[in-house]
Amino acid sequence: MPELFIDSVNHWFGEREILSSVYINCKIGEVTGLLGRNGCGKSTLLKIIFGSIKPNFKYLNINDKVYKKGYQSKNLSYLPQEDLVPDQIKVSIAIDLLCPKNRAALLKIDLISKYLNTKFHELSGGERRFIECLLMIYSDNQYVLLDEPFSQLSPLFVEELKSHINQVKISKGFIITDHYYKSILGISDRIVLLHNRCNYAIKNEGELVLHGYLPGFTA
Ligand SMILES: Nc1ncnc2c1ncn2[C@@H]1O[C@H](COP(=O)(O)OP(=O)(O)OP(=O)(O)O)[C@@H](O)[C@H]1O
C-alpha cells in the first residue's frame, strides 16, 4: 500500500534534543493522529517531514522513494500553525493554485462559494482557517499534514472539516495534530503520542493518561 514514512528522526535546537529516533507514517486511506504536550515537538516533526526544518538526521520515504525534503515529492501538502495563504490573495485564486483538480468539489461548499472573490485578510480568523484547511484537504497531493486544523474553529466547522477528511481519505493519507484530542481520537485510524522525545503507538485513551498526556486519577 502507498505510504509516507519518516524514520530515525533526530533533532536538536542548540543544546536541547527535541526528537530522538522518532518514527511516524501514514498510508493512503488512513488518518494518523499525532498528540503530545505543548512543546514536545509535534510542529517540528511536521516541518521536518515537509522540509522547512533540516534535522540532524532522518530517513524520509514517500511511495518507495527517498526524499531530502517532503515538498520535493510534489505530493505533500502542509498546513502550518500560522496563516497559509498571503493576505491579498483571493479565495478563487488560491483554489486555482492549490487545488485545480478539485475546484468543482470545493465550489459545492457554502463558505467557499460565498467568499470566492474575497481576499484572505477580509475573512474572520476562523473562516480563514476553515478555508485554508479545505485547500489542503482538497489539494491535488496524496499526503496531507495538518498542524492544529481545529483549534480556531467553532464546533460546527470542526464537524464539517472532519466530514470532508472522511470523504477524501480513500485516496489520501493524513497526519493531523491538534489539542482538540477528542476530535483527533474520533477521526484517526491510529494515534501516535510524542513524549520524552520519542514516539509511542497509542491503543486507547487510558494509555494517554499513562503517558501523562491526559490528566488521570491517582490512588
Ligand atoms: N526555531 C526554534 N529554535 C529553538 N527552539 C525551538 C524552535 N522552534 C521550536 N523550538 C522549541 O522546540 C520545542 C518543540 O516545539 P514545537 O513547536 O515543535 O512543539 P509542539 O509540540 O508543536 O508544541 P505546541 O503543542 O505548543 O504547539 C519547544 O520547546 C520549542 O520551544
UniProtKB/TrEMBL annotation:
SUPFAM superfamilies per UniProt: P-loop containing nucleoside triphosphate hydrolases
Protein name: ATP-binding cassette domain-containing protein
Protein source organism: Pedobacter chinensis
Keyword list, A-Z: ATP-binding, Nucleotide-binding, Transport
Ranges of residues in domain ABC transporter: 4-218
GO molecular function (one): ATP hydrolysis activity
Database matches in InterPro entries: AAA+_ATPase, ABC_transporter-like_ATP-bd, Metal_Ion_Import_ABC, P-loop_NTPase
Pfam families: ABC_tran (PF00005)
